[in-house]
Design a protein that fits this description.
The C terminus is likely disordered. The radius of gyration is 22 Å and the shape is globular. It has 498 residues and is of the alpha/beta class. The strands form four sheets. It has a seven-stranded mixed β-sheet, sandwiched between helices. Strands 10-13-14-15-16-17 form a six-stranded parallel β-sheet. The protein contains 19 helices and 17 strands. Helix 13 links the parallel strand 16 and strand 17. The chain has two domains: 150 residues, Cobalamin-binding domain (Rossmann fold, 3-Layer(aba) Sandwich), CATH 3.40.50.280; 292 residues, pyruvate-formate lyase- activating enzyme, CATH 3.80.30.20. Helix content is 38%, strand content 15%.
Length: 498
């Protein structure tokens, strides 16, 4: 069967700071290839809608599958599905991914029959099973399948993450993938899931608060296939277990694989497993992302980060002592006023780390969706990108964006301005000699992308598709298990101290 897999276009944040390869879709591609299908993959982050239409006409797939990991891409995917049904009326269109797993029925309704199936849960299981079921139209037997007739069997987890390593060869224009100064950069996965339970996050609810890993052998084999000099480790929390990080490092050292690495982890994990991160520094670890989210005790409790400001500050000191460049995230509360924005700007300029600001956003699948969504000021999918305010703001909305952009601009000039460029002249020169321009372009694009007038105007657009309206009665203490997409038979690596 001819199968075309499609990743949607880049979102606002990806216009500047990063553009990552569609790793999940590459793994789904590997699983469908293993079943003998003829598979192609097109990433609309680096290709155009015209390229997609050309591929549809030339390849004439029997099935087209979309990856839908971000709510803001819902309108684009729905409209593309409708267009595909015009070009290829007999083609089966299916959609899977993280975000759509929480709004499957609603997305099917938006599509008016153009989307045949939504696959909830892990696509490496669902996609091959769906393709096998198509001749008999036995959709209800496919794990995670939801159609206009309703849900079928519950989604299943992949038996082993060692199966179906990414089919990176199917994609093109790989030089377009980067993260910050790491240009170009590939992506890799060592683990899946998160044992913590932050109130704003759906990583743990999607996987049923489970935590799984590739074997060290599979992880290193996948690394050996990567040609790019930079690698972003996409794990929600890297090296939760020290022995796992050590074993991968040992095998990388034995095989003399050397890359530049960028990873994400938690402050408490960094402190607990400091020696592992020091070992990875010797292997090429250069950049680390730490999600502080809040600067005060109250904010950390609100987000249920299970950490303290003192612990976070200690972790920053350790990261500096290792010699890492650290990026941190702070979540802007829509209730912030000018004084709070000013305080955050002052603090951010006082530390050497790269500070990023996102906007508090309740997402389906998170606890905050149940507790906060009744207060939503918009149901436009396109605004659910952590760059827009979807909850009531204390300041007038345009004024809120002025303060937000002012704060982001101050922080951007700190690391992306002329002075920062002067400090990275050698790096930029080497990138340009290799024909890599992603990092250089992002330095000059900030004011075009982050603009208070633009962000405010995007609230005034006509809305074609809207999220389901929240329940009239807020849920104070939701049943967490009701949020789960996957319900694991047993849980491993439960949150320390729980």
């Amino acid at each position: 069967m001819r199968v075309l897999l499609v990743h949607p276009s880049a979102l606002m944040y990806s216009e500047i700071f990063l553009r990552l390869e569609p790793l999940g879709l590459e793994r789904v591609a590997a699983a469908t290839l293993a079943d003998g299908h003829d598979v192609r993959l097109i990433d609309l982050q680096v290709y155009s809608h015209e390229d997609l239409e050309r591929t549809l006409v030339e390849f004439r797939p029997h099935a087209v599958g979309f990856s839908l990991n971000y709510l803001a891409n819902v309108p684009e995917v729905v409209n593309l599905a409708k267009r595909i049904k015009v070009i290829l009326p007999g083609c089966t269109v299916f959609v899977g991914g993280h975000s759509v797993s929480f709004v499957a029925e609603q997305v099917l309704g938006h599509a008016d029959g153009a989307i045949d199936v939504v696959l909830k849960g892990e696509g490496e299981v669902g996609a091959p099973a769906l393709l096998a079921a198509l001749p008999d139209r036995a959709m209800s037997e496919v794990p995670g399948a939801v159609t206009l007739d309703g849900p079928g069997r519950p989604p299943s987890m992949l038996h082993s993450l060692d199966e179906h390593l990414p089919a990176r060869h199917l994609g093109g224009r790989r030089r377009k993938y980067f993260i910050g100064v790491m240009d170009p950069a590939a992506s890799i996965e060592f683990t899946r899931g998160c044992p913590w339970d932050c109130s704003f996050c759906s990583a743990w609810t999607f996987y049923g608060r489970s935590y799984r890993r590739l074997s060290a052998e599979a992880a290193v084999e996948d690394m050996s296939r990567i040609k790019e000099p930079g690698v972003f480790i996409v794990d929600d929390v890297a090296f939760i277990k020290a022995e796992e990080g050590d074993e991968i490092a040992r095998q990388l050292e034995r095989r003399r694989i050397r890359k530049s690495y960028y990873l994400e982890t938690r402050c408490d994990v960094l402190l607990r497993n400091e020696e592992v991160f020091r070992r990875w520094k010797r292997l090429g670890l250069e950049y680390m992302f730490l999600g502080l989210e809040a600067l005060d005790e109250e904010g950390l409790k609100q987000f249920r980060k299970r950490t303290t400001p003192q612990l976070n500050n200690k972790a920053l000191e350790v990261a500096r002592s290792i010699g890492l460049m650290v990026a941190i995230n702070i979540i802007a509360d829509p209730d912030w006023d000018e004084a709070r924005f000013a305080f955050v700007r002052e603090w951010a300029m006082s530390v050497p780390e790269i500070v990023n600001i996102t906007v508090q956003t309740p997402y389906p699948g998170t606890e905050t969706w149940l507790t906060e969504s009744r207060r939503l000021t918009t149901l436009d999918y396109r605004l659910f990108d952590v760059q827009h305010a979807v909850l009531p703001t204390r300041l007038p909305l345009h004024r809120f964006y002025e303060e937000l952009v002012k704060t982001q601009a101050v922080l951007a000039r700190k690391h992306l301005g002329v002075a920062a460029l002067a400090e990275t002249t050698g790096l930029v020169a080497r990138q340009l000699l290799r024909g890599q321009t992603n990092f250089v372009k992002m330095i000059w694009k900030f004011n075009k992308v982050y603009n208070a007038d633009r962000q405010f105007a995007e609230h005034q657009r006509e809305t074609e598709y809207m999220l389901p309206p929240p329940a009239d009665t807020p849920v104070v203490a939701p049943d967490r298990k009701e949020l789960f997409v996957h319900v694991p038979a047993r849980r491993r690596a439960l949150c320390p101290g729980r």
